[in-house]
Amino acid sequence: MEKPTSTIPLLSGYGSYFETEAIVGAIPKGQNNPQKCPFGLYAEQLSGSAFTMPREKNLRTWLYRILPSVKHGKVVAAPEEAPFLTEGTNLTPERLRWKPLDYSLFEKSTDFIQGLVTVGTQGDPTSRDGVAVHLYVANSSMENKCFFNSDGDWLIVPQEGGLRVQTELGLLPLHPGHIAVIPRGVKFRVELLDEKARGYICEVYTGHFELPDLGLIGSNGLAAPRDFHYPVAYYEEKEVPFTVIQKYGGQLFRFSLDHSPFDVVGWHGNYAPFIYDLSRFCPVNSVLYDHMDPSIFTVLTCKSSVPGLAVVDFVIFPPRWMTQEHTFRPPYFHRNCMTEYMGLIRGIYDAKAEGFVPGGASLHSMMSAHGPDATTFEKASHMELSPSRIGEESLAFMFETSRVLKLTDWALDPKHLDVHYIECWQSLKKLASLSLNKVD
Ligand SMILES: O=C(O)Cc1cc(O)ccc1O
Ligand SMILES: [Fe+2]
User: EC number(s) in its UniProt entry (predicted)?
Assistant: First the structure.
């Protein structure tokens, strides 16, 4: 089922080496930094990995722009730019569930940066290791203002409202059901295509998001490299006062420009933002019996230095057929050494009959017991096991992290929580009656 596509031109191929020019000839031929660049452009390198990383992990892009990034005003602290973007300091192993972020959180006009709310953080962006979970809510576009994050990559999961993301490397359309990754350092601004927008963000301070290995699955399946789309070069030549917001070491700073920073006329390299349509995901699962671990649905991973241990995996629970025989089909009861933050883009999640609503979220931290609620357990224990379809209308996701999230005050405020969450398991009954076998 082909969906209407955006008119914004895009490049395709995860991890490819791209060359794109908004004006033919903007990229110098045969060398990166000639004495004089074509059309009087400035050459600037943006490095996403250390210069010396092995070739397969080496990330950098050459930008050919009207003015170099270095021409900007004095940097000043600007915590007021996003008052709810804070470090997490609270620890609790309790199972938590949140209501959807309220659009009236900010009464006035709120852009994507002003409407950021941190749920939890772990690690230290200044030692470049860790993870953070944020939410955003917005009702206005960023005007003559952009943002960049020195601390890591942002994986953005829109839940409501279409966005047009203008990046230094070009334009990206971003709609619910799709995701974007904006790598560390890339400047961007967010325009709203609808009246309001809301979503989730996973930030990694460590490394970068990448496609997971497929192991024995083979060379196809899950997210295919060709379904990742990158921007073509797109520039504006605007001499207007422009504000740049920078996140650096978890804190916000601001500086001004006298021109638009979206002035890159051509670029070549392999370090760039991208989008991915989650409906392109090709799920692989058990086709006979038992419930597989959710790692089978990993779209992108941010690896740690320990083989097989992710800093965070981005996992989805996509529309699919369930065919397992003599199997309890929803997620099992479990305790996990990883921490699971989940969100719902639309529909219903098969482990939770009610309460986990689109725009809401849940957190099951390291070793905290969780699983299907009592209603789901009852139903799935007795249902007839014919092939059944989790329909197009359902899409949940998980940020599964090896780090334990420290929560912000916002996240622990009962106003934002579903304070009755743990009641969903309390009516689980003892089903076994083993007293006959008891040895006195
Ligand atoms: O807790 C959850 O709902 C996420 C999850 C889903 C699943 O299918 C198996 C394990 C797991 O943690
Ligand atoms: Fe889980």
Answer: 1.13.11.5
